[in-house]
Every structure is written in structure tokens, then in C-alpha cells.
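Known limitations

Files may contain more than one protein. Parsers should not assume a single record per file. Below, a two-record file is shown to illustrate correct handling: read the sequence, read the C-alpha cell line, then continue until end of file.
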Amino acid sequence: MMRDVLAAIIGIAVAFVTVMLLQMLGHMVYPPPAGLNVEDTQAMSAYVSSMPVGALLFVLASYVIAAFDGTFVACWIGRAKPFIFALVVGVLMLVATITNVIMIPHPLWFSISAVVGIIAASWLASLVAPSSAQSGASFE
């Protein structure tokens, strides 16, 4: 049980680090305007509405890839059924993403793609991850 909790926590951490790293890469390719205050929702809304599609695709990719690799890592470490980890990591990613798109309006295509992509990525990772529950492998 404790191993499964730890696996979920590590999976969530991996997901959030992935988001951070991929969005940092996106900011190198598509730098935000100088002096942008990310705490100001009006300024962020204006920025997001003027972002190039490529910049939005970096953000979308960060969410989807993070949902996949966070779920994958949690399934690999944990002993619970892989779908449990897909739910834990996927739901947390969904909540964070939906909160973000509510607070800062994004294009409709982005919002739909993010929700569908996160669900699909978490589910797919739960299917392909080498689970210690399924293989009987021991990492202790």
C-alpha cells in the first residue's frame, strides 16, 4: 500500500516536472513578452489570446506528455492495478489543466484537445507501462 502511494506521488512529480521542462523549452522557442506578469490574469489572458499556434502546441504537448510519463512511471513503480494510477495522475493533470483554462481563457480547440489528450495519454500509459503488479517484478 505504501509503495502504491509513493508510486502515485512520484508519478505526479514526474508529470509536473515534465510540464515545467517542456514549457521552459517552449518559452525558449517562443519567448513571452518582456515584463509579462504571470500573476496578472488579465495580462496572461491577453498574452494567451495572441500566442502563436506553435506556442500553444508546446503547452498542449507538455500536458499530454506529462500525463503519459507520470502515469507510466507510477504504473512501473506501483503494485496496484495500472488503471488506478491512470486515474490518480490523469485526474490531477485534468484538474490542473481545467483550472488553468478557466482562469486564463484558451482557444476552444486547445481546451478540448488538452482534456481528450490527457485522458488518452493516461489510459495509454496504463496499458503499455511495465507494471510490477502484472509482471510480479520486485524493485525492493
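...continuing to the second record:
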Amino acid sequence: MRKVQLVMIGAGLLVAAAGLVACGEGNGESAASGTAVRTIEVAMLDELRFEPSSAEVGVGETVRFALTNEGETVHDFSLGDSMDDMGDMGMGATGSSGDASDTAAVVGPGEVGELTFTFDEAGEVEFGCHQSGHLEAGMVFTAHVS
């Protein structure tokens, strides 16, 4: 009887360990792609700036931008530093913004949103707020890709 209990306990531990390995350790690895996804939290402020306003990323890195609108007006986080650049950067991106573009996230006052972007080549990639007057006032986030 004692031997059966030990075997059952051992089998249960093996199943639990296998489950933990399959789930990962919460390090951000995507089960679908097998690549790490780093999250960068960005605050959208009514002072017409993003906080932080820049970040260092690596070529091939996928970043999930977790966006929080801390203001009282609508802000967006859109690829490109002009309306002409939006969505025409030649780099892979996926977003969850409800917007027709997969390279922009529009976030209402007090709300949160996200945009996931893969940086395919070295250089600088800018994201701007394209609400009236915001971009012109300098509401830009720069990713330095190396």
C-alpha cells in the first residue's frame, strides 16, 4: 500500500513539473512564435508627450507597448512621425487598437491600449500622436534599434 502511494505521488509530481515546463516561467516567451516579447509601458500625457519618450531595442526584437492614457483627451500611438509615414515604414507590426491600421492604437481618456511591433532593421523608428496639434507639439516616441 505504501509503495502504491509513493508511486502515485511521484507520478503527480511529474505531471505537475511537465505542466510548469509547458507553460514557461512567465518570461514573456510567446508560445506561438517561440520568441521573447518585451513589454514597454508608455504613459500618454496631456502635456503632449509620451513617458518615456524613447527606448533602446534590438533588431528582430518584438515589443509590446502597453499604453496608458493618463490625460483627459484622446491620444494615439501611431507608427511614423507624420501622417504620410503612418503604416508605410516597411516593418512588421501588429496592434490591438480597434483601429483599421495595425500600426496604430487610439486610447481614450483614462483608458489603456497596446500595440505590438517587431523591429526588423537598425535605425530609429518613431511613433507619434496624430491627434490635432499633438505631433506638431512634439508628442513623439523614438525607438533606437541596434
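Parsers that stop after the first record will miss the second one. For reference, the second record is described as follows. The first strand starts at residue 37 and ends at 45.
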